[in-house]
Each structure stands twice: as C-alpha cells, then as structure tokens.
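Methods — Computational structure assignment.
A single polypeptide chain was analysed. Its primary sequence is given first, followed by the predicted tertiary structure written as structure tokens.
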Amino acid sequence: MSVVGIDFGNDTCYISVARQGGIETIANDYSLRSTPSYVAFGEKARTMGVAAKSAQNTQAKRTYYGFKRLLGRKEGDPRLADELNRVPFELGQDGGRIVYPLSYGGKDLQLSAEQLAAALLTKLKEIGFNALGSQINDVVLSCPSHFTDAERRALLDAAKMSGLNVLKLMNDTTATALAYGIYKQDLPEPEKPARNVVFVDIGHAGTQAAACSFNKGKLTMLSSAACNVGGRGFDETICKYFFQDFQERYKLNVPGNKKAVLKLMTEAEKLKKLMSSNQNKLPLNIECFMDDKDVKGAMDRAQFEELIAADLAEIEATLRQCLEGSKLKVEDIYSVEIVGGSSRIPSIKALIEKVYSKAPSTTLNADESVSRGCALMCAILSPTFKVREFSVTDIQPFPIKLVWDNTGAIEENKGPGEMEVFPAFHAVPFSKMLTFFKSDTFRVLGQYSGDLPYPDPHIGEFEVGEVRPTADGSNQKVKVKVRINPNGIFAVSSANLVEKHEVEEEVPVEMELDEKKDDKAEGEAVKEAEKPAEGEKMETETKKDGDSKEVKMEKRKKTVNKTIDLPVSARVQGQLSYDRLQAAITTESAMAKADKDEAERLNCKNNVEEYIYEIRGKICDELEDFMLEDDRNRFNLELEDAENWLYEDGEYAEKRAYTEKLAVLRMTGEMVRKRRREHEERPEAVNQFGQCMQLAQKAVDSYKAGEDKFSHLDTLEVEKVQKAIGEKQDWFNRMCADVAKMEKTSDPPVLAAQFYQEKESFWHMASNILNKPKPKVEPPPPMPSAEVGAGGEGMDTASDKEPGAAEGAAPSDPPPASDAPAPPKEAEKVAPEMDVD
C-alpha cells in the first residue's frame, strides 16, 4: 500500500510516495527524480517530461511549457501578453479562454492550459504506476499559496481530466512546513515548546514566504506572501544582458530568433548555478548560436547581483510583508528554512538574514520537500494508511467579501450590501452562517478585496432560489452558509429558511368532578377507576385538600417551526461546466490511448530494427558454423530488404505489420540460434542421462548379488526397473548415433530437452523402487514382573489388583498393546539415495 504526493511545478515536477519504509521520491523513465513540465505534440502522439524538453530545440513551436501560469486565466489577461513575449509557440483566445492552437492527428485543435496540465499529470500518473507497480488514483497535489479560487478550480479540473482523485490541494509552503515538522520531529511530540518557523521558497516562477507555528503536535500557518520574481526572472535578466552584448559585438538580433533565445536561456541557467558557488568571472560559450556564428561572453557574481538588484528589492518587500502579516517579532522566530532552486544564490541568503536576523537553514531538500509534504498529507487523509494524528491548519491569503443587491426587498435599505466574511490569513477549512431577510430569489457575489495577483477579483455568483414572502407579506429569515473548503475554494454551500406553521394537537385538560353524584354511582366510578387497563400498570394519585378532578383531551392550535432547504446555483470563474469537463475528459482519454498505441507501435518497430542489427552480426560470427553459406547469403538479403522497408514504406506502418515482419525474420534466425544452443547443451544432457542409467543398473546388480541393503526389495519391481533400463538404453544408443552423424548446419533429430525429459521420467520410476526403505522391526513388549513379599512369595496388594480379580489368582495378562508404553525405536536403516552427479 502506498500514497502519493505530487509537486506540480511550473518548470519541473516531483513525485513522492509514503510507504511502510517512509517517504521517498521516485524516479521517472529516465532515472531522474525531476520531470520537466513540458508537453510536445507529434504527428500521432504526445511526449511529456524529459523527452519533450530534450526535443525542444528541434520542434520549438510544438513543445509547450509554462502553462501552469495560465490556468484559469481569461481572455484579455495581462499575463497572456507577458507569456507571448516569452515563448516560441502560439497562444490564442477562444470563447473567453486562453488556448494553444496546434495540429495533432491530422486535425487542428485548440487546447486549453488545463488540458496541457492534464497531459502532464497523465505522464506523472504513468511514472508512478511504473515505479510502484500499482494504479495511482488518490493524490495530494501542490499549488502556490497565492493561487486564487479560479486557478485552484482550473487545476482540479485538469486533475479530473487525467483521472486523478485529488484528496487535497495543498499550498507549497504548507507542504514544506509539514515535511520540516516530520524531519525535526516537532509534530509527534506535544511536550516540545512552541516554535515559530519561516519558510522561503525561491522557485522557478516566483517567490513564496510563509510563517507558521509548531505547538503541541499542531501545525498552524500564520501568514504568507508572494511575488512573481524567481529563477526564470533571473535567467531572463542574464539573457537581456547578453542580448545587448551580442548585438554590439556580433550584430545579432537575438530576441527575433526564438530558437536562439531558447539556447541562451539554457546556458544562462547553467551560468546562474555556477555563479552561486564561484565568484570568479565565468565564461559563456555557444557554438552555432545564430546565423552559423559562435558566440562568447562572461559574467561574474558581482555583475549578476547588480543586474538583479530590483528583483532583490521586490523579494525583500515580500519577506517583510510575510513577517508583518504573521504578527511575529524577529526574536520570536526559531528558524528560517529555504527551499527552491534559486535559494542557493548567496545574495538571496544574505537578504533573508537581513530581514529575519537569522542565517537561513538548509535542513530540507531544496527540490523535493514539497512533494514529500504532499505525500505525508496524503497518508494522513488516506483511510487505508495508519499515521499519527497530525493537526494541520492552513490559511487563505486574500480577504473575501460578499456583495448583494437589495433591489426589490421589502425593507428600508434598498441599496447594495457588502460584508467581509473571511479576512486575510483566515484559517481553512472554515464555514460561517449568515442571515438575510429576503422576500424573493436573490443573488450574492463572492469577491476578493485588497491586492490580488489575479486581474479580476470576482470569484462567483450564487443564487438562492424559492424565497417567498411570509403570509403577512414580510421578509423571510434566510440563513446562508458560506465556506472555504480544504482546497482553499470559496462557495455558498447551503441555504435554508424557517417557516412557522399552525397545527392542531390533542392536549390533556383537567376538569372538576360533579360532587352531586349519588353514592352508588360514585362507588361504581371508583371501582371502575381502580381497574387498570389491559397492558397498563395501575397508579394511585394522592389529591391534595380532597380535590377530585378528571382529565379529558382537547384539540388546540400550536405553532411549530419547519426548516426548508433552498436551492443554490453557482456560476464561478475558472471551473468548467459539466458538459465541457466531460468532453475534455473524453479528449484526454483518447489522446492517452493514442499515446499508448503509438508507443507500442514504435516499440514493435524498434524490435524489428534491433533484431536486424543483432542477428546480422551474429550469423557472420558465433553462428557462422551453424548455417550453410547459401542460406547465410539468402538471409542477409532478407535482412537488408527488411531494413530498407523499415526506413521507407514501413516508416509509419501499423503495429501488426512490424510483428509479422519480425516473425518472418525470427523463423530463420532463431532456428540457427537453436542449432548452436543445442550443440552447447546436448553433451551435458547426454552425460546426465547416461550416468542415471549406470547408477540404476548398479543398484539392480547389487540386488541380484544378494546385498543386504537391497534384500527387502520386491523381485517383480526390480525386474520392472531392469526392463526399463533396457528400453531406455536402446533409445539412448539410437539417439546418440543419430547425433554423431549430424552436421552443425542441420537441425538436431533430438533435443537436449528430450534427454532431460526421458531421464526425469525414468528416474522418477526407478528411484521409487530402488530407494524403498527397509521395513521397521518392532521389538517384543517387556514381560510384567511380580512383586515379592516379606516371605518371599508372590503377593498382590489390594491396590494392585484389577477390579473383580479373585484373591490369590495369578497375575493378570499384560495390558493391550494400545495401552502399553511404546517401545524404544531402532535407528531407521534406509538405503542411501542414488543421486546423479
């Protein structure tokens, strides 16, 4: 049993698994732990991950990346224009959504960022299956802490398209904090003092900072802040420097050539990593960079830090914003932990120490901590995995308000209403109940307030229906439940109202008895009252002051409250409609099947190619003696024809064609291999069969000579063995004679496997007879001894006599064998087994 956590990054992804042995990060099909967030489209199939990024330079316009930044984004979003300037492929807009126009399978398609994310998640799902050997369904998926409602819904839609069931969307910083808590053993030990820790993640797409508290086995997030400055921004800053440098020295317009930009970005990232550990000026050399020109350049760390000074200032502001939001003082912070690829830059470490007055700690794996924290959370949420109880309280970073319109309401205030329901850094999941006084169907709007990294603060519109005035025409009291779920998504989860209804019910009423009843009637009434009803117990009630009363039932009206659930409909941003989601799921399933079919087709094609190269070399080397020269020449021609077909007409053949072609080639090639294999294995098989018959004949001869260890054998069974020896020896001699006359280039008349089979069948029969153990000889039971009395005569005491035995009678017979103690066993003498060497 295993549970999975996925760090779904903008540049790379990591998969971690929680198993009985702990938490580990698994490798992909290239034996790498990191899987690039790249998806490429070929003519018949897609490639994802390492293969897609490796082929980026050759098909730059069909290799897509950075789509995580466009999840949930709409037409006219300023980030779209920003991405268009960064990438070499096309981006478009369709029906208010950002799309990627491409050609695939002979059709022109427009795929959304969610569909590209689903393709990458399908690849990660496949990697997990290959590593673990079991299907992956339930996962915990990471997302940036600053993701808005629309972006979170879009990411969940992408997971549904790929067939993943997301147990929780977990903020990157929260996952890192959970991983830290396990490594530091803060969570499972409630006796430890409270610790406040700050986590800084300098990732590829941006910077995230979060403060949290570990206290008595609980993890509570306090604040978070983010900016768009990250590793990609640093790489682009280096590239801009060399754009100008190459323009001046080589007269090259690098930004106008997308492939050249990709080459320079790759080298800039390498240079950035080298400058993190080296202060000297480092070279940058690219051969055939552009217009068949080689380019050279250089940069040192001081120059790099000067170029990114503005970015460092923005990161510093983000770090201080996180500290202010947490309400912590610098002296209250126990540790500052850093993760993310760009956290290795010395100037960033110095900046963190400047803000928090503490040197940053590198306790955690800078790349894998997010996926490890997600895997642990998945184990906590999984019902089939036993984990210690950990309490994790997350937050949502932006304040959320409700806005509603009072038009048409039966009340004095008919203007718009507004109320903040969840302030910034409010704990999630969390629900609140709000009360509205309405007389008709009404709508409420969920909106973000304050600074937001998303252009539209609108979350969604929620309509509460079937609201009608009361009987007297006044407003209904409607209770609306708003909630932020564990994924950080806001919604109006339910609504209801309470209606008052009058109902009739029978209630007991006490009445005074008539005192003028005659004595006889009164006596009969008393007797009748004293009789208990069937199935009831008789109760006696004492009346005070001699009052006599009786009870009768009356119908009276009563007001009761009835709760009525109201329908709530929602129109939210980012999330696909049911029909569009189902269509996207169908499309992704079809593409995944096409990928699988194409992979199998290419595998069959590669099998043919490999077999041609392999057998061609061997028939002229180790298999040369086992094939006639004419047959070898003819087979070489067949191999050459198959190779030509493979690269011409068979380039895009179906899987079945490759399978048939390989079968034809193997008919000849494997027969030659079989001759060589038989030539090598046959001597050992013949030797073992011959030794087996020799040992059996030796045992038969010993029996005939009267040796004691075989004296217990049955004569008829030994004769049966002797007859079998004769028959097998005759077959053995004939087969050996046929083999001796056979040429190496001929097919063998008998296989080595047949010698082994004949030996096994013979030995099974013979060994059961010749190895039969001698029968055991039971010793006679011991005779009973008589006790001698004082006079020397045999005498029985009363206690020693058997019941009913006469006095002075002879000692009784020995007890039956079943009652007697078992005699000591002789050592078993078994004829030694005749093993064949």
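Note: The chain has a mean pLDDT of 84.
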